[in-house]
Amino acid sequence: MKVAIVHYWLVGMRGGERVLEELVKLYPQADLFTHVADREKLSDLLQDRPIHETFVSRLPGARRHYQKYLGFMPRALEELDLSGYDLIISSESGPAKGVIPPPGTPHICYTHSPMRYIWDQYGAYRDRLSWPGRLYFSHLAHRLRIWDVSSAARVDQFVANSSFVAQRIHSYYHRDAQVVHPPVDLDAFRLPKQPTERTHYLFVSELVPYKKADLVIGAFRGLDHKLLVVGDGEQRPELERNLPPNVHLLGRVPGSDLPGLYQSAKALIFPAEEDFGIVPVEAMACGTPVLAYGRGGVRDSVIDGRTGLFFEDQTTQSIRDAIDRFEAVDFDATDISTHASGFGADRFRREFSGVVDQVLSGLRHQK
Predict the structure, then answer these.
(1) pTM
(2) Cα–Cα distance, 351 to 290 (Å, whole number)
């Protein structure tokens, strides 16, 4: 088949790009389409693929300020000529699914998340802007919601990365979605070969407001437990100003160092409401339990009482209570790691290709 894969933007290697790598492995003949690509920040696998950029890439400063051109992206997608392709796969978190498929060409959308900044987190994004920015963004978001809903009709099959995202697809688009969880690199994240002393709690994330690093740090204030914080972002200066002595900000760490930090952690603290959450699965693959806020995609990956514990509120006291409960329970690292092994790349490719086969078979029967 001649396959087109449409991804929102290619400016780094995060969870969405890791999924894209697996799609490219499934369809190595595929052409990639995106609004903006910065090849120097991509993996070798993606760098080697033909990448076609929309006209957004030709706008001034687009590689650094692509998000400021959000209002141009719907039209840019609709101007892509995808004639001659046998299958279209869109990878949606920013605008990607709004392409116009040729008649009879199946379009499958793998949805990392409906655009959160125009839907469930619209208020949080808007409130961080200046007054002129809020005025402009409220107008833009209104128009984008109308386009986002109407363009959902161009998708033959939605695939969600979690049950939580599938529910949001149904709420916003009134469409059903099959769930295929994103892949985790189980070669990099695994149980330590030798038993390792677990000395600290761990928080791994960008330091931005909705990740709730401030709540975790506040929960450890005055506790007789050590917390390591991995990540960087706009909140770091604020967090550093009043840091408890038992909390250490490590900033960004090399990817090769992260497995060791998981392997030596008592537990990962995960207080955000995420679409899926790769970090908890990475931790569990290393045999590390997860103390997580019990909403969002984490309910697909963490088993309460077996691979971790849920807390019910995004508050410092709720996190403290979870730590107290955790300290009184024994967890089996091997069992936790075995559970996480069900989220590997082989499983992702098998399940996603099964969805594609199902869609193609259905179209053949219609003919």
Answers:
(1) 0.91
(2) 26
Domains assigned to the chain: 3-183+345-366 (3.40.50.2000), 200-342 (3.40.50.2000)
Angle, nearest 10°, between helix axes 278-285 and 333-340?
Answer: 130
Instruction: Give the model confidence (pLDDT) of 161-203 as tens digits.
Output: 999 999 999 999 999 999 999 999 888 999 988 888 899 999 9
DSSP helix/strand/coil, 244: coil
Mark out the alpha helices in the chain (DSSP H runs): 15-26, 44-47, 62-65, 73-78, 122-127, 131-151, 163-173, 213-220, 236-240, 258-263, 278-285, 298-301, 316-327, 333-340, 345-366
Q: Give the distance from CA 133 to its chain's centroid.
A: 26
Residue type, 15: G
Rg for the chain, CA atoms, rounded: 21
Note whether 5 and 31 are within 8 A (CB): yes
**Segment 57-87, tens digit of pLDDT:** 999 999 889 999 999 999 999 999 999 999 9
Residues 6+ apart with CB under 8 A from 127: 134
The two tokens of residue 198 are 């677990």
SS3 85: coil
Alpha-carbon span 149 to 165, nearest angstrom: 15
Q: What is the DSSP letter of 194?
A: S
